[in-house]
Write a structure and sequence with these properties.
The protein is built from 70 helices and 40 strands. It has about 2000 residues and is α+β, with helices and mostly antiparallel strands.
Amino acid sequence: MWIPTEHEKYGVVLASFRGTVQHGLPLEIGDTVQLLEKCEGWYRGFVHKNPNVKGIFPCSYIHLKNAHIKNKGQFETVIPTEDSVITEMTSTLRDWGAMWKRLYVKNEGDLFHRLWHVMNEILDLRRQVLVGHLTNDRMKDVKQHITARLDWGNEQLSLDLVPRREFSMVDPDEISVTELFKLMEHRHRKKETPVPASTHHLFVHMKSLMSSNLGEELEVFFHIYDGRENRPLSERFFVRLNKNGVPKSPEKTERQCTLFVDLGSSDLRKDVYIVVHIMRIGRMGAGEKKNLCSIQYRRPFGCAVVSIADLLTADSKDDHLLKVYACTTESEWYQIHENIIRKVNSRYNLSGSNTGLAVSLQLLHGDIEQLRREYMVLFTRGVSITKKLGFSDIIMPGEMRNDLYMTLEKGEFEKGGKSVARNVEITVYVLDIEGQVMKSYVAAGSGEPGGDEYHSFVLYHNNSPRWAEQIKLPIPVDMFRGSHVRFEFRHCSTKDKGEKKLFGYSFVHLMQEDGRTLPDGTHELIIHKCEENANLQDSSRYLKLPFSKANLPGNNQAVKGTKESFWITSFLCSTKLTQNGDMLDLLKWRAHPERINDSLSKLKEIDGSEIVKFLQDTLDTLFSILDESSQRYGLKVFDCLVHIINLLQDSKFQHFKPVMDTYIESHFAGALSYRDLIKVLKWYVDRIIDAEHQDHIQQVLKATEYIFKYIIQSRRLFALATGGQSEEEFRCCVHELFMSIRFFLSQENKITSPVTQTQAVFLLTFPAVYGELLKIFTVREVAGFVRETLGSLPATVHAECPLEAVKLHCIAKTVESQLYTNPESRCILLPVVLRLLQAHMQEQRDLVMCARILTSMLSLIKKDDSVTTEPVVSEEVDLIVDSLLVVLMRTILEITNRPQPAGTNMRLQFQDITGEFVACLLALLRQMSDKHYQQLLQVFTSKDDLRDFLLQIFTVFRILIRPEMFPKDWTVMRLVTNNVIITTVLYLSDALRKNFLNEKFDYKVWDSYFYLSVIFINQPCLQLESFSPSKRKRVLEKYGDMRVMMGCEIFSMWQNLGEHKLNFIPAMIGPFLEVTLVPQPDLRNVMIPIFHDMMDWEQRRSGNFKQVEAKLIDKLDSLMSEGKGDETYRELFNSILLKKIERETWRESGISLIATVTRLMERLLDYRDCMKLGEVDGKKIGCTVSLLNFYKTELNKEEMYIRYIHKLYELHLKAQNYTEASYTLLLYDELLEWSERPLREFLNYPMQSEWQRKEYLHLTIVQNFDRGKCWENGIILCRELADQYESYYDYRNLSKMRMMEASLYDKIMDQQRLEPEFFRVGFYGKKFPFFLRNKEFVCRGHDYERLEAFQQRMLNEFPHAIAMQHVNQPDQTIYQAEAQYLQIYAVSPIPESQDVLQRDGVPDNIKSFYKVNHIWRFRYDRPFHKGTKDKENEFKSLWVERTTLTLVQSLPGISRWFEVEKRELVEVSPLENAIEVIENKNLQLRTLIAQCQSRQMQNINPLTMCLNGVIDAAVNGGLARYQEAFFVKDYIVNHPEDGDKIGRLRELMFEQAHILEYGLAVHEKFVPQDMRPLHKKLVDQFHVMKSSLGIQEFPAYVRASPVHFTNGSPRSSCRNSVPNILSPDGARVVARRSPLTYPAVNRYSSSSLSSQASNEVSNITGQSESSDEVFNMQPSPSTSSLSSNHSASPNVTSSAPSSARGSPQLQDKHKHSRENSCLSSRERPVSAIYPNPLDPAQRATPHQIGDTTLPRSDPNLSAPDKVRPTFSSWSLDSVKEVNNTQFSDTVGKLLCPPVPPRPPYSGSSAKTMRSQSPVPTSRSPQKSSLPPFTPSPTECQSAGLVSNSPVLSGSYSSGISSLSRCSVSEASGTEATTGDHPAHQGPTMPNSVSSGSDELIRRENKTPPPYSVYERTNPRRPVPLPHSLSIPPSVDPPALPPKPHQLRTSSMKLDPASDPRRADGVPHVPRPRPLPRKVSQL
C-alpha cells in the first residue's frame, strides 16, 4: 500500500533507471527527485526538471537529503536544507551542462574547453565544501572561489547576474529594492572596473648569468633606483652564483627569488629602474695567472639596468635577458648605473658580446595579504622579502621595524710610504655595549642570511676609493643603546703572499647620550691609524676617542687637519626609535617642567610619522599635563590634541584611527578631562562669529568627532568612579554647547563669508558625533539635538552656496547613521530630512546626493509582520509618499529625457542616479498598501490633477520597462520592477474606471494605459518560453506569469469602455495583435476575442470593417517577420474568431476577413520558416513569390507588394538567378511611368523623379538580362530607353544605349548559351509548406543540371521527403498523409515560336533562345501497346500517352518554377506517332544540310552520321515497317478516317528520300578524301532504299519541296519562302501580350528543352538510345526503320519517365533522351504571335491564302464600336481576367507624330517577296492572318511608313501598348467572330504600294520576337500607369493606342473637358483604375 512520505521528501539519483516497469519513471544519474509516496522498496514521485510526469522507481536508486517543506500538502515546495552556495552551484552546473553541449555543436571550441575546466574546478570545490572538514577561513576562501567562477561562467554564457551577500544568493523579497539595486550595481561595477591597486610589488627570480669568461664565483645585487632623485628606493637583494653562473643553492628558492614590496603608484614610472651590480670573488686581476695565493677579493664585474615601465605592459611573468656592462675605468664603478641610465657611452662598455643576465620579472598588484591568497605557491615555495627604504605610503599600526641602513660612500687615504696607491678593503663589525661582536647582524641585503662581518669590494690602486655599497644592520631596539659600528681598513697586497694589512679603523655610535639615535645623513668619520697587530678587541680603549670630524671640539685641530677621512650615509627606519629631540622632551616633560610650553608649541612641527610612532605615549602625556595644569596649559593641550586628531585624517596615517579608538576605549584615563574639553570647545564656538581668522577654528571643528569621543569617555569614567555624580551639570554643559552651535549655524552670511565655510566644516563632522551622544543620552534626546541643530540652519540660501551641498551631505550621513536606524528617532528626524530633500529635488539640484539619501531611507523601511512596527512603517511611508512621490516621478522623467553628458564618468554617474531613483520609486511603491493608494488618490482634488498624475506614472512605468534601463543581465531587477508595476497598475485601474469613463472619458489617459500594458506584456524579460526550464520554474513560482495577469486586466478594462471602444479602432489593433502573438495560450485566449469586439463596433459605425482588416494585415507582416506568431496561433485565431461571429448578422464578411488573415498568416509563417535556412534555395524563392502574389491579387497592398518584389530580387541575385532577378525587378518597373512626378525616398532609392527611377530600373534590368544571357529581352528595354533619350535629345546617352544594344546583338551571335532541362515536381503530403502542399510545379534546372542532380538537390532541400518511384498521379492517401512525398521527372518544353524554329537559315544561336524561353506548356510521353502486340511489327500497336502541362506563368519568369494550372492527356495513335518521327527526322536533316551548305558546320561528321543512320535504318527495314503497318489494305479498310494521315506519311517518306538525295549531293561536295568510301557506301545503300520504297521518280509535290536554297543563302530563303503548310484558320485573332510583362500575364515560359544541340551531339557520337533499348520492344535492330540510333522518335524517347525512368536509381542508358527538339506539324503553332497548335484538318496549301483570309479593321468604324473596355482588378493572376484596351485606332491616327527617318533594310527586295508570296497587307501585327515569321530584332522601321501609307499610319504609329498596358489573352488564339473582322471583307493592298509599304508588308507578316518594338509602345506618355500589370482580353481585338511623345507636356495639362480627342469625335475612354495609388511616392 502506498503511504505518503513524511520526512523522505527529497533525493538525488545515484544511477540511471530506465523505467521499463509499469508506471516506471525514467531517471538519469544526478537528477533531483521529489518523493510523494512509498511502498515496499519503491518510491512514487517526480523529477524536478519535469514535475508534470509522475512515476515509480526503486528506493535503492535514490540518495536521500534533508529538506525543508513549504506549503505542506498538495502544492508543497521542497527546498534542500543545504548551504545556499551548494544549491546555487548544483542548479547552475545543470544549466551550464546543456549549454556546454550546445557550444560544442556551434563549434565554439575555446569557450567549450574553458568552461569544461571551470566546471571541473567548481565540482572539486563543491566536494571540499560538502566534506565539511574546512576551517572557517578556508571555507570562506573556497566559497569566494566558487562564486567568482560561477559569475565568470554566467557572464561568458550571457546568463543573469546573481545578487549575492556573503557568497549567498539574495532573495529579492527579503530585502528592499534599493538594497537589491545596490547589490546588483556593486557586482556589476566589480565586474566592469576593478579598482586599481595602490600598492605594487615586484617579483624577481634570478636564473643565471651567461658569459664566456666565467670561472669565479659571483655575487649579484638587485635594488630599485630612482633615476630622478639619484637615490636607491629599496634595500638590496643578494644572490650568490657558482662558477657556472647559476645560483649556489638552487633548492632554496628564497635565495634566488624575492619580492620588492610596498612600491607606491608614484614609483611605477619611466625613470625608476631595477639596477643589478655583479661582483666576482677571486684574484685582483681578472686575467692573472693562478698563483699560490688563497686569499680572494670582491672585485667589480658588471652592471645591468632595466626600467620598471617596461614591465607595466607585460601581463605574465616574463623572462628577460639583461645586457651586462663593465666600467671603462674602475674608479667610475660607484656611478656606472647612472652612466648607463644617462647613456654616457664613453664611461662603460659591454663586458662581453655574449654576456647576459637571465632574470624573471613580474609586477604584482594589491596588498601583501591579497598576494598571499592569490599566489599561494609563491609564498609556500619560499620567497625573500626585500623592503623599501623608509616606510610605505600607508603606515599600518602594529608594523614592527628597526632597520639601520649604512652606505659605505668613499674614503681618502694617504699613500703610507708606498710608491703606488693602496688597494683598500673595509671590514664592518657591529659591537654591543660590552664590546662584543654581535652575531648575524650585518647583512649585504635580503636573500642571504646576515653575517658577523662584511667585506667591501676592493678598487685596484686607488687612494680615493668610492664604494657606494649599502649594508643593512637589523639590530633589535633593546640592543641599540651603547652599540657601535667599527670599520677596519686593510691594504690588500697583490704579491705572492697576498696578505691583507690593517692600517686604520673608524667607528660610530648608534645612539646618543640623550637617547636619540644616529641622525640620518652623511657622516665624515675619523680614520684612526693602527698597526697590523693592534689589539682592537678591547673597544673601551678607542670608544673614548672622537669618531666624527663634525663632533670634534674646537681645540682638536690636529685631527681635523688630517687628510684621511671616511664617509658613510646612515638611514634609520624604525617604529620604536626616534632621532627627534623635541619629541623626547615632550615625553619626558616631568624632567623639565619649564620646557612644557615650548614642547607643546613644537609638537606641531614634529614629523607626523614620529608622532604616530609614539601615539599612545604622546596622548598620555597630553592628558597628564591637562589633569595637573588645566588652567595653565588647557588651551595648548586642546590645540595639540586637535593637531594629532587632524593628523590622523591624512591618508598616510588614517590607519592609526583604530589605534586612537583603542586608546580611548582601553587606555584613556582622563576622568576629569570632559569639563575642560567642553569648556574650551564652547569657547571656540562662541568666538566663531567675531573671529577674523577662521582657519584655526575650522581645524578645531574638524576634530569634533574625536573631541566628543574623549568628552563622552571621560564622563563615563567619571560617572563610573563617582556613581553618576554631576549628571545634571554635564547635561547642562552639553545643552549650552549645542545652543552655541545652533546660534552660530543660524547665522545667514554671504556665500564667500568665512563663517559660512566654518558652518560647512561643522556640518561635515557633526553626524559622526551622534554615536557618541547615544552612549549617554536617549535616542529621543539625541534625535532632538539633531533635529534642532539641523533645523536651525538658514532656510533661504542661494543655490550656488556651498553650504547647500554640505547640508545634503550632512543629511545623508544622518540617514546612514546608527541614530536613524531606530524607528523612534526616525519619526523625529524624517520631517526635517524630507523638507530638505524635497526642496533640492524640486529644483533638480545635487541629485546624486538626493538619490543616495533616498536610497538609504527606503532601505530601512521593510514590511514587517509584527504588530508593533507596522503603524510606524505605515506612517513613514505616508510621509514619504506625500512629500516625494510626485517629485520623484518628475525627477525620473526629467533625467531620462535630458541629453546624456559626453564624458564617460559623467555618463556613468548619470546612469547611476537614474537607476537609484528608479529603485527608490519601486521600493516606495512596493511599500504602499491599499490605504496608501486611497489616501494618495484622495489628495488630487481636481480631475486634471489626477489625470496628470496618472499620465505621469504611466510614462514613468514605460521608461522603467525600457531595455536600456538596466544592464542586460539584471533579470532579477527587471522581474522585481515588473512585479511592482503590475501591482500598482491594478490599483490605479480602479481610479481610471471610476474617474475617466462615460461622460468623463479621457482618451489620452486610456491610451497611455493600454500602451503601457502592451509594452509590459511584450518585454523580453517576461517571455518565459526563452528561459531555461529551471529559470522558468523559479520565475513562475515567485511571480506567476505576469503577462497573463496584465492581459486579463486589459480585457477587463476594454470591456468597461463600451461605445468609447471606437476611439481605439483602428489605433489599438496593432498593439493588441502584438500581444496576441506572444506564445502564451492563456493570454491568447483572453486577447483574441477583442478583435471580434473591434469588428463588431466598426461594423456598427461604418457598416464594414475595412479599417480593422487593413490594420491587421499591415501589422501582421511586420510582426511575423520579427519572428512572432506560430502555427498554433493561426489555428487559435481562426477558431476563436469563427466561433465568436457565428451569430452575428455580418457573419459572411467576417468569415471572409478571418479567412484572408489566416491565409496571410500561413504564407507569412512559411516565408519566415524558409528564411531561417542558410542558403538561397527554391523553397525561399517560391515562398516569396507566393507571398508577393497574395499581396497583389488578394490584398491589393501595393507597398507591401513592392517590398517583396525587392526581397525576391535580392534572393535571385544571391542565388545568381540573373534572368529571374530581371523579371522580378520588371514588376516594379512596370508600375512606373515616364513622367516627372516626384517620388519619395523608398527602400534604397533616393528621392527622385519617376522618370529617373524608371531609367535606373531599366538599366539595372538590362544589366541583369545581360548577366543571365537573356539578351533578346535586354534589347527591347534598350530600345525603349533609346526612344526616351531621343525624345529628350539626349544624344550622349542615346549613343551609349545604341552601342549597348549592338553589343547585345553581338553576344547573341558570338556567345554560347546552354539550354536548361525542365523538371516536373509534385509536392504531396501535409508536411509541406502551404504554398507547396499537394501542388505540382515545373522547374527550370540550373546549367548542366540533369535529372539525377536535380532530384538530389530537391531531396537536400527537403531532407524529410520521400522520393516516389513512379509517375502516376498519387491518390488521396498520399495527399492527406502526415509526411512529404516528392515526385520528380523530366519534361519537354513546347516552344511557342515555332516559325522561328522551323525556318531554315536562322542560326542556332538565335533558335536556342526560342526553344527554352517564354514556355507555357510542357509535355511528357509514355509509350504503351494497345490491344494485341504484333511481335513481327511492334509499330502497329505502339501508342503514346501524351501529357501536356500548362503553367500559370511562363518560364523563365520571376521564379525558377511555376505551378501547373492545367493537365491535358491525349493518346497519340501509332500512325500519328510515325508521322511525328519522320517529320522530326526530316527537319533534323534539313537543318544539318543547311548548316553544311552555309559553312556553319566546322565538321561534316554530324551530317555523315545522320545520313548514315537514316539510310542504314531504311535499308534494314525501318521505313518498310511503317509500310507493313499502315499501307496494307487491312489497315486502310479498318481505318478509313486515317486516309489523309496515310497520305501524309507517304508524302513524308518520299520527302525524306528526296532530302536524303539532296543531302548526299551536298555531302559529296564537302566530304574529305578519307571518308569517300563511306560516302560511296551511303550512295549505294540509298539506291537500295529507293528501290525498297518503290521510288523511281519523285512526285511533283516532293520536287517542289523547298530543299534547295535560293542563291545558296539561308537568309534570303528565310525571307522569301513561305511555309508549305498554312492554316486556313489564319483569321483567328490572337491578343498581343508583352513578353516583358510579369509572367502571370504572359502565357509563354522559359523552360529547359531537350535541346537540338544535344541531339546533334548524340548523332555525332552515336550514343543516343535506340528504341529497343528504351522500350524493349524491337525483336531485332534490323527489322525496323526506328532501330537505328538516329531514327527513333524524339517524342517517344523523350517521354516522361515511365516506371523505369521515374526512379532516381535509373541506369545511364535509361536517362532522359534529348531528341524531342521538334514537333509535328500538328503541334506547330501558326497563330499570330505564339499561336496554339492546329488540328491536321486545318492545314491549307499556300494558294488558298489570299485577300479573303486576311482580317480587316474597318477604318470607318467608330472607336466605341471597336473598343469595349473592361475594368480589371489590380491582380497578378490576370490569366483569369479579361482584356482591357485603352485607345482606338482613330486616336492613333490623330495623335501620330512624325517618326525620325531610319535606313531601310537592304535585304532582298519587297517586290521579290511579293511575287513569290502574294500576301495582302494587314493593319497591325495583331490582325495578321498568316503565320508570320519572326524577324531578326535588327529589322528597322521604314522611313516612309507614315507618309506613304495613310491607311497604315494608325497601325504603325500607335504600335502596341507598353509593358504595363499590354493586352493579354486568356487563350492563345480566339476566333474572330465579331463584325469588325469578317473573314472575307476589306480592300486588298494595291500592288503599287511604295517600297516603304513593302517593308511594312514584310514586317507585318512576321511574328515579332519577344520584347520587340511591336510589343512595347513608345512609352513617353504623360498618362499615369494603371495599377494592374495585366489587362484582360476584350471580346473584340483591341484598338491600338497612339504614341504621344510629342504631346508629352501638353497632354498632361489637358482637362477632360478640353481633351482634343473628344473634339475629333472620339469619346474619352475611362482608364480602369480599381485602386487609388496609395503608395504615391514609391
